[in-house]
Design brief:
The protein is about 10% helix and about 30% strand. It is globular.
Length: about 90
């Protein structure tokens, strides 16, 4: 907690291969305490296998994947569909 008693926001970025919240996570990163943490190198050590698992653990989705980007495969750069969650 900060000096004013407010917990700092935590952000969880989860990349999946589709826009479904039950799709398998293929990439992740966490912003916590002013630091960016990439997920563990070993996929088996990632805390969540899907967005819905993270939601069940109290993470709230604040941004869904940009569907318009999925329609332009030749211009899309990135790992796939990115969900942003916060706690």
């Amino acid at each position: 907690e900060s000096s004013n008693g407010i917990k700092p926001q935590r952000l969880l970025y989860l990349q999946t291969s589709t826009t479904s919240t039950s799709a398998e996570v293929i990439g992740m990163s966490l912003v916590e305490d002013g630091q960016i943490y990439e997920g563990p190198d070993d996929v088996d050590e990632w805390p969540y296998n899907s967005v819905i698992e993270a939601m069940s653990d109290g993470w709230r989705v604040i941004k869904f994947p940009e569907l318009a980007l999925l329609l332009q495969e030749d211009k899309t750069i990135g790992l796939g569909c990115e969900f942003i969650l916060e706690k």
